[in-house]
Amino acid sequence: MKKLSIAVLLLGTIIVTAQEQEKGKQIEDVIIVGNRNAKRTKLETPVPVDVINIEKIQKASPQVTVQDLLNYVIPSFNSVRQSASDGTEHIDPVTLRGMGPDQVLVLVNGKRRHTTSLVNYQNTVGNGSVGTDLSTVPVIAIDRIEVLRDGAAAQYGSDAIAGVINIILKKNQGATASITYGLSGRNDGDTYQAGANYGTSLGKKDGYINLSLQVSHRGKTTRTQNHDLDIFGDNFAYPFADDPDAARAADDEEIRKRGLTRDDFNFQIGDAQIRQGQLFFNSEYPFNENFKLYSFGGFSIKEGKGFGFRRLPSETFNVVSSIYPNGFQATLGSHVYDVSYAVGAKYTINNWLIDLSNTFGSNTFNYNVSNTNNASLGVKSPTRFYAGAHSFLQNTVNLDVSKSLNRFNIAFGGEFRFEQYQIKEGDEASYTQYDINGNIATQGSTVIGAGGSQSFIGFSPQNALKKDRHSTAVYADVSYDLDKKLNIDVAARFENYSDFGNTLNGKLAVRYEFVPDYAVRAAVGTGFRAPSLQQQYFNNSYADISTSGAGIVTKGIFRNDSDAARILGFDKLKQETSVNASAGFTLKPLNRLFITIDGYWIKVKDRIVITSNITDPRLADYGVESGRFFTNAVDTETKGVDVVISYDWKLAGGNLNINLAGNYTETKITDFHFPENLGTPQNEFFGPDQINIIESLSPKTKASLGLNYGIGKFNFLVRNTYFGKVIRDGYPFGGVQEFSPKIVTDLSVGYDITKNINFTIGANNVFDVFSDRQIYENSYYGVFKYAPVQMGTVGSYFFGRLNFNF
């Protein structure tokens, strides 16, 4: 398998997929991201930029969301659906070049997009980070996506350490529509998506308005196996019983008496159910040749239904037996509202382009827990709870000025950004532990069960808050082009944050074409990522019964500026800083053959993570038994290479597009930063499982070979995607497991029924490939049959799609 990985590394990467080019012309598309020179094509940039034609890819691909499409198109991009992970089940974390979700900046039409309000803290990929929900932008609204695979904080500010994803909305005239239905090979996970897009002219010249509406549904999947849980007995699992066979037999008898089967006690483990509706627009109105107004934005509502761990009837401290005699598995319902809009004006005078804009975005995540109980209330417990919400708001004002002067392009500008983060409390019963008389429990109280809503404890008044900050930035960007032979970019950015101070970053990028169609390119720059408000202020501490007999104590996640954090010696969060370097070359040895190879090195200092669960005697002074904290705990080093090979071949009266691409990325933690007086061992401060998430839970090697053949009214797609090995550390309750590499095959066949109607059928993962089964000690007594790594846990998925173009 090492030989295969090396071969993939040497041969390449899929960046320009089979659908990205239209008879070899797509490669000439002018790109926007990465510099402010609007005259460069993709092969002329000093840093690697991928141009993904979403409409062409989506037409033939099984995937229906932005993150899933990119996951099978760009090997350095990773996105895997998670299971039983609270809010992270509802918003997929995405990564680029092995970095965190919060180290990728997302733009829409070149303007900064807001992140979600969700913090990933359930030990998934991107643990402790806050990303951007790409699924909030409907696929039907997107013309293309530009992916800058290089650090760009000196150009765009915070978050652009790993790269930039720029989503370009449609502005075409006419109407398009798409209807998709799909189902997994196990007859679950049914998916439907219907979208329509309409564009028309606005004003006398070059004006437009484009509207998009999309609705979608993704059904839940179940991927469990028979497990060893002791359902009615005193042991949590049969292996802990003195006589496992007798314990199992006793359970079988009790199940029979109740007229049930073992299937009635199965876990619901798999993909969460997601329903979503989206409305987007993109418009521009020219008053004259020199002055234009533009606006774009949209609204998305997402409703999710995920599932927590099952509570067994034998767990009497967690289950009110009179309400749930057979135990229960709680349902976590989400209502996620996402709003964005931008308005701006462009004015041209003496070849100077002045762009003034305001961009607003907000994301609100509401939690509703059902099929659960507050065991401390006994029979009086509700079974449904509003558990609270968190929201994030961002407003950005930009002034950008640019001008082309012969071979120079000069740009400069400024930015003012306001951000606000809020946590709202839930129902009292969702977070409170009560005593035997129904009063709020205090020290010395007698309690009959666990407090709060089981599976997801609500946010309390102590958690609730509203915090904000602002930042101001100025930048300058100069580029020089010598007859497309020599390109030089120099950028600098100064930024001041109201909550942690100043940062100054710069970047130099050079491309030199030493002979026609053969060029070398390189870049070096510094970067930063400001600690998000969510990382500074997210907390969900709650009251619970002490495991050491100390009575009522507080556990959970605590703010970085809390008393608990101060007593342990945690410093105030500060920005991550980075150094990025890249070098590579581009070549076009044949008319339709394009090759790019780019190596990169990223050094990040003071990376923000969430710690493992810390216990320390000093916490007892504040009534805290254990807690987790956000801190600048580690330095990391990432190195890797991207290779892209694309060839367009006229064959037998048709057009064959061949795309081979691959990525190798390796991230290592190079240093730890512990508070000086913290007596906690490393395994408790930042354990092996946390190190594993950063270093080896995502594939180091990923590659794809796509073959797309169009002839007459038919189009055929075959795509193989290689997911390299990953390692999962189940510490502190499990073991270390290596998951072997896997290859997933996508197939589709499209037919043009008429000039305006196309029908496509096909499959993702047609051979039903799964990651290796989990070792028993990592599977929660056999419940988690597969880990959500590599290609996820859906298995084979079959679809049909109608595309309309009028």
TrEMBL record:
Keywords: Cell outer membrane, Membrane, Receptor, Signal, TonB box, Transmembrane, Transmembrane beta strand, Transport
Record SUPFAM superfamilies: Porins
This protein's name: TonB-dependent receptor
Record's signal peptide: 1-18
Superkingdom of origin organism: Bacteria
Pfam family name, one: TonB_dep_Rec_b-barrel
UniProt organism field: Chryseobacterium gallinarum
Keyword Transmembrane carried by entry: yes
Membrane-protein topology: Multi-pass membrane protein
Ranges where the TonB-dependent receptor-like beta-barrel domain occurs: 340-766
TonB-dependent receptor plug domain sequence ranges: 42-164
Family stated for the protein in its record: Belongs to the TonB-dependent receptor family.
Compartments where located: Cell outer membrane
CDD domains in alphabetical order: ligand_gated_channel
